[in-house]
Amino acid sequence: MVTVRPDREILTRQGLPNFLGISGATAGSTGLCMNIVVIPPGGQAEAHYHDGYETAIFLLEGTVETLYGDGLRQSVVNTAGEFLFIPPFVPHQPRNLSATEPARAIVARNDPNERESVVMYDPERDA
Question: Which CDD domains match (predicted)?
Answer without folding.
Answer: cupin_BLR2406-like (cd02210)
